[in-house]
């Protein structure tokens, strides 16, 4: 890969995830203060990305990859998305706001796959080169959080203005990216391939079915964090909550380094159980944390994000690839993403919204009761997993971790 291409791809990844991090984390706080949204309305807005995740593979596999150069369609999608982000700042009704966020999500989510395609097309050794390019996406997310926290704008529409500005910049920048030509009609894309139906053969393996169900269910507690953690911290009165939530991304970057070693040494079951245990501990920390003597529990709950995410979802991608093998690994990864970030998060965002409304009180929310719910759900999933998951021992070559396209 040429040095110029590497710089361009790094900037692309930085902006791609800077945009997402600019508005997504603080949207619940913005909606609660400016739109007076209920928990269900906030959950519905967050479900937009889950819906977009479900439909994104069909758009990429059946339209974008076949007929358009990836960098050009990504540029158009980001320019159109910038207009919708700008439009969102002037909306005062929850229904209209939901439809704008859904429309934007349908434009944004395909750009994640497109950015990965553009990067892979330029690489001579993706296994070694992609992580060094993709890490700039995590840096972009971190910088967005630090900027919003430093400017103290997480309760205002400025977060959407910043995201819109970055989206315009990336839209224009995309047209100058290295060419990634369309695959053409000969690619033979079908709806079933886009869904990852070739990977349905994995369901013949009982252990994988148990894991697959657990992965969908654990998205319910995950959605509580994504949708309401920022609202919770702001309601408690934490200053610069968005900036402090960035500790979760730092934790994610650190713990991910341990996964390739632990995957083969302690086994997939123990790693997944560590991840589920972290979910329980995180929400107990949030339940009993405060800005007084127990402030450390709030920080612990944020920092545990690295273990929660990496030890379950990143490990899950690796386990899925190991089960699938070389022939259907792409279909298997697509199916896993569809089920978790699509179906699982769709269920989770609606459940979390309902629970938050259920425990609304006169001066805010009963957050202790709210956080008990995802803690109990995570505990139930863990018990289910311990009882039913039985992996057959087999010799297999060490697995090299593949990048997670959905990693923030």
Number of domains: 2
Q: Which structural class do the helices and strands define? A: mainly alpha
Spatial arrangement of strands, main beta sheet: 1-2
Total strand segments: 2
Q: Tell me about the largest β-sheet.
A: 2 strands, antiparallel
What's the pLDDT, averaged over the residues?
Answer: 87
CATH architecture of the largest domain: Up-down Bundle
Subunit organisation of the chains:
single chain
- Beta-strand share of residues: under 5%
Gap between N and C termini: 24 Å
Topology:
Blueprint: H1 3-23, H2 27-35, H3 39-67, H4 70-88, H5 94-121, H6 126-151, H7 158-174, H8 191-195, H9 206-236, H10 241-244, H11 247-255, H12 259-265, H13 268-288, H14 295-303, H15 305-324, H16 329-358, E1 360-361, E2 364-365, H17 367-388
Word description of this protein:
The chain is mainly alpha-helical. Helices cover 75% and strands 1% of the residues. A two-stranded antiparallel ribbon has the order 1-2. The longest helix has 31 residues, at 206-236. Mean pLDDT is 87; it is low at 395-408.
Descriptive key words:
single chain, mainly alpha, Growth Hormone, Chain: A, 2 domains, globular, disordered C terminus, 17 helices, two-stranded antiparallel sheet, 408 residues
Quick recap of the structure?
This protein has 408 residues and is an all-alpha fold. 75% of the residues lie in helices and 1% in strands. It is globular and about 55 Å long.
């Amino acid at each position: 890969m040429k040095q110029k291409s590497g710089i361009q791809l790094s900037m692309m990844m930085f902006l791609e995830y800077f945009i997402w991090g600019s508005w997504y984390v603080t949207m619940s706080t913005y909606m609660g203060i400016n739109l007076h949204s209920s928990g269900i309305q906030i959950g519905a807005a967050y479900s937009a990305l889950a819906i977009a995740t479900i439909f994104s593979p069909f758009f990429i596999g059946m339209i974008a990859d076949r007929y358009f150069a990836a960098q050009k369609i990504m540029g158009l999608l980001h320019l159109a998305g910038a207009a919708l982000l700008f439009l969102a700042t002037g909306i005062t009704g929850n229904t209209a706001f939901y439809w704008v966020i859904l429309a934007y999500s349908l434009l944004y989510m395909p750009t994640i796959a497109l950015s990965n395609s553009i990067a892979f097309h330029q690489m001579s050794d993706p296994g070694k080169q992609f992580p060094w390019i993709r890490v700039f996406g995590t840096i972009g997310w971190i910088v967005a959080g630090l900027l919003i926290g430093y400017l103290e704008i997480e309760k205002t529409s400025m977060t959407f203005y910043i995201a819109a500005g970055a989206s315009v910049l990336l839209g224009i920048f995309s047209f100058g990216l290295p060419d990634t030509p369309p695959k053409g009609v000969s690619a033979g894309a079908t709806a079933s391939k886009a869904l990852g139906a070739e990977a349905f053969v994995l369901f013949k393996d009982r252990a994988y079915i148990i894991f697959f169900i657990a992965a969908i269910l654990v998205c319910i507690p995950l959605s509580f964090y994504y949708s309401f953690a920022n609202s919770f911290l702001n309601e408690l009165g934490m200053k610069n909550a968005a900036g402090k939530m960035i500790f979760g991304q730092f934790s994610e970057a650190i713990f991910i380094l341990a996964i390739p070693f632990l995957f083969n040494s302690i086994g997939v079951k123990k790693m997944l159980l560590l991840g589920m245990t972290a979910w329980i501990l995180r929400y107990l920390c949030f339940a009993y944390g405060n800005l007084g003597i127990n402030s450390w529990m709030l920080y612990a709950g944020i920092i545990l994000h690295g273990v929660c995410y990496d030890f379950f979802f990143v490990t899950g991608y690796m386990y899925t690839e190991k089960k699938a093998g070389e022939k259907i690994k792409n279909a298997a990864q697509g199916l896993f993403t569809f089920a978790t970030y699509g179906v699982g998060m769709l269920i989770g965002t609606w459940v979390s919204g309902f629970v938050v409304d259920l425990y609304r009180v006169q001066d805010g929310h009963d957050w202790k009761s709210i956080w008990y719910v995802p803690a109990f759900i995570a505990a139930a999933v863990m018990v289910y997993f311990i009882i039913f998951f039985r992996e057959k021992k087999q010799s297999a070559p060490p697995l090299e971790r593949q990048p997670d396209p959905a990693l923030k």
